[in-house]
Amino acid sequence: MVPSSRLSDDATPVRHIDLCYDSQDSEQSALRLVHTLLPEWKESEGSIEFVKFTDGITNTLLKAIKRRPGYTDSQLDQEAVLLRAYGKDTDILIDRERESRAHSLLASRNLAPPLLARFDNGLLYKYIEGDVCSPEDLRRPEVYRAVAKRMGQWHSTLPISAISSAPSEKHASNGNGRNGDAGSKDTETARPVPNIWTVMQGWINALPTGTEAEKKQKQGLDEELAYITSKLANTPGMDGNDYVFSHCDLLSGNVIIEPSPESTLADGDAKHQPSTTVGFIDYEYATPGHAAFDIANHFAEWAGFECDHGAVPSRSQRLEFVRHYIESYRSHAKTDLDPSPEEVVTLMHQIDLFRGVPGFYWGIWALIQATISSIDFDYKAYAPLRLGEYWGAKAEMDGSRKASGAEMTKREKRWAEE
What is the tens place of the pLDDT at every residue in 97-128? Predict the structure, then answer.
């Protein structure tokens, strides 16, 4: 069973504003939302300025700044508000109620900016200072160590009850999560609903079937998901936590390098920069999932939207990440168990098994986006790139690539590098 310490839910209800953001009337509709949230901004001195961020490919993100006379930029940022409006028809892909619960829980743990309100097609929350990462940043050792530590904290401490309901099917677990393998079967434990497998099934179900080609594509994806689920859905987790509170979208734009003031060394003669820390933003895909999936998904994002497959982490980089992750997990779990070499080996193996699954996940997602999105992004070209990551990994693991004499994919070559 999921340990009882993970079943509490301290997320709090969030105010709802009965208004919509309209991209065709961006400034005025945003102004109405901000004035409703903060009526004092309407009456006090200083204009309201909106800054549009364009890093995302599914949502509109605006920063609302109250230009109070005499305030420094830092002071203005301390009371700035972010407005995030959902992309057209994205409710097909995202459970907005679950997203709100996830954000509320994280904010209550000081792991997310305070969620100020929901509106009919989006959220309003506090702006947090920091630098948004690029894919290149994710590959910097000080950054990926910080990401590993933050992920360890998430997976070790956040209750999945905040983003799931009653358990569904039974699946196998190794009981305590130590020295387990993806196929081990010891005790029966319940799978939370939703989970990454039910999410992917829901996405496949939403694909169009108007043509014979679309029907064939959907049938093939259904069959492949059943195959993946049979292989990996029983993957055991540390301490019996087979399913953890997974971000599921740790691309570069969702990793924020937090500001850290200089600190003085003991001798007082020199200053140094403290260790890098990061925070995660945008929780719309947060779902109970396997730690190995969440980590493999993050590693896939080292390639960026351009799918630079030569940029995914080598084995030595993955090993360093995993060691920092497990150390953080253990530290935040506050158990009497120390990180073990067996845990490192097990998690590395599980991440290997999951390495292609993020490509399958985002490939399906892109197929849906290609039918609903009005955003200027080539989802039709992106989908086969991501699905190709899955097929390349599968062909390597089942030996079919080698048997056929085909060349190893660029991504698989990089993954195999030490």
Answer: 999 999 999 999 999 999 999 999 999 999 98
Query: What single string gives the DSSP state of each residue in 41-109?
Result: HHHSSS-EEEEEE---SS-EEEEEEE--TT--HHHHHHT-EEEEEPPTTGGGT--HHHHHHHHHHHHHT
CB contact burial 264-289 (16+ within 10 A = b; e otherwise) = eeeeeeeeeeeebbbbbbbbbbbbbb
- Cα–Cα dist 213/218, whole Å: 9
pLDDT bin (cut points 50, 70, 90) of residue 56 is: low
pTM: 0.88
56 domain-assigned: no
SS3 sequence, 273-297? Answer: CCCCCEEECCCCCCEEECHHHHHHH
pLDDT digits (tens, 9 = 90+) for 145-204: 999 999 999 999 999 999 998 554 443 333 333 333 333 333 334 789 999 999 999 999
DSSP H helical ranges for 212-278 = 212-232
Closest C-alpha among 378, 238, 406 to residue 305:
378
The answer to whether 6 and 190 have CB atoms below 8 angstroms apart is no
User: Does 26 reside within a domain?
Assistant: no
Q: How far apart are CA 51 and CA 110, in angstroms?
A: 25
CATH number of the domain residue 271 falls in = 3.90.1200.10
Write out the residue range of the structural domain in which residue 385 sits.
4-9+104-112+129-416
Tally of domains in the chain: 1
